[in-house]
Design brief:
Elements: E1 2-12, E2 16-19, H1 20-23, H2 42-49, E3 53-56, H3 65-79, E4 89-93, H4 104-111, E5 121-125, H5 131-145, E6 151-157, H6 170-173, E7 179-189, E8 197-204, E9 212-213, E10 241-242, H7 244-266, E11 275-278, H8 283-292, H9 304-307, H10 314-324, E12 333-340, E13 344-351
Parallel strand pairs: 4-5, 4-6, 11-12
Antiparallel strand pairs: 1-7, 2-3, 6-7, 8-13, 9-10, 12-13
The structure holds oxa(dethia)-CoA (UT7).
């Protein structure tokens, strides 16, 4: 029986660390000013979200989402002991694409040096914080049907360019960071029902679509872009908007439900599972899920303290972080639960 194995993992965050303290002084170009630009502080951010710092790309205008994706992808491909040319499908999840179209996966393909007439399939998926598990489910199906044999799944986000560095934008701005995580999957012939990817289930509820969104443009309007980007007070369309309390409550409920469904569907218990890797949106959300789903707290892995919320990247980034620390080991069984804009959510159980 063909099952999907995780062959390699990699992640990347840019070098610049922005602490909570520094964040309050950054202007729209991420340059530290002498006066506070945003009424916020380290205590508020730590207490409400658990975040201590995040990483930002250089503000030289040279970095795009696909550059972060490339760094993580190169590491995951090397970890799988493969070459970029071995990849026959790319699935890239992001909410911060390089440009409106084409999708970011094709830019990544070029940056990996594998574009051209024999170029592999490239998919972009737009499922925000749930993008990695949506991608894993897609890749699992592709591998099991025999369509592709070496699939690169990347979650990559460049958030720092599209946040509003002001008191008006602070509820969203303090939460997000830049980063990318990637895995390579492929087929494994085995009768072991606990090998590779054991379970994925993803869901969505479109009634929450405008509880967390970034418009940038509205295609229903003529013209579809009708604001002056320099008049920041007058326009809101170019900044993210969130109904924080509603998102928080739905995240706790859906991630708890998805976790319990994953255990019920597979018949596994926390004795069988090595680590719980939740999406990293807010440490308080994850603590609540651990409480309600009765997860052994020592099995929960969080990295939001170091990276903030990197949306589609959080799951592979967290796994790779703790793998490099020696905590997560080859063959460990992970249960991951995610929730994000859309609303979208899901859970997966897989061996790394
Ligand atoms: O990846 C999935 C997407 N995101 C999430 O899952 C996030 C879900 N939501 C949350 O994590 C929380 O709702 C937040 C961390 C965003 C906010 O926490 P909260 O406890 O819901 O705070 P709040 O929005 O009720 O705001 C409380 C106060 C308000 O002031 P007043 O009205 O009480 O005077 C806000 O204006 O805190 C103020 N506030 C801030 N103060 C300092 C909001 N943001 C900030 C800030 N710094 N950054």
């Amino acid at each position: 029986m063909i099952r999907t194995s995780i062959l390699g993992i990699g992640s990347y965050v840019p070098d610049r660390i922005v602490t909570n303290e520094e964040l309050a002084y950054l202007d729209q170009k991420h340059v530290r000013q002498t006066e506070k630009q945003t009424e916020t502080n380290d205590e508020w951010i730590r207490v409400r979200s658990g975040i201590e710092q995040r990483h930002y790309v250089p503000n030289d205008g040279k970095w795009a989402c696909s550059d972060l994706a490339k760094e993580a992808a190169v590491r995951a491909i090397a970890d799988a002991k493969l070459q970029p040319k071995d990849i026959d499908c790319i699935i890239l999840a992001t909410l911060s694409p390089d440009i409106h179209f084409p999708g970011t996966a094709v830019f990544l393909q070029s940056k990996l040096g594998i574009d051209g007439e024999e170029g592999c399939a490239c998919y972009d998926i737009r499922q925000q914080c749930s993008g990695f598990l949506y991608g894993l489910q897609m890749a699992d199906s592709f591998v099991k049907t025999g369509l592709y044999k070496r699939i690169l799944i990347v979650g990559s986000e460049l958030h720092s360019h599209s946040l509003e560095y002001s008191t008006r934008g602070r509820d969203v701005m303090v939460l997000f960071g830049d980063g990318a995580g990637a895995i390579v999957v492929g087929p494994q012939e085995t009768n072991d029902e606990r090998a590779g990817v054991l379970y994925t289930k993803v869901q969505a509820d479109g009634s929450g679509a405008l509880d967390l969104y970034l418009k940038c443009f509205d295609i229903a309007k003529v013209p579809y872009l009708d604001y002056d980007a320099n008049k920041t007070e007058e326009n809101r369309d170019m900044w993210p908007t969130m109904n924080g309390k509603k998102v928080f409550l739905h995240a706790v409920r859906c991630m708890t439900m998805a976790t319990n469904q994953a255990l019920a569907a597979t018949g596994l218990t926390w004795k069988d599972i090595d680590w719980f890797v939740p999406h990293q949106a807010n440490l308080r959300i994850n603590e609540a899920v651990v409480h309600y789903a009765e997860i052994p707290p020592e099995k929960a892995l969080n990295s939001i303290m170091f990276y903030g919320n990197t949306t589609a990247a959080t799951v592979p980034l967290t796994i790779d972080h703790y793998r490099r620390e020696g905590k997560v080991k080859k063959g460990d069984l992970i249960l991951s639960a995610v929730f994000g804009a859309g609303f979208t959510w899901g859970a997966g159980i897989f061996r790394v």
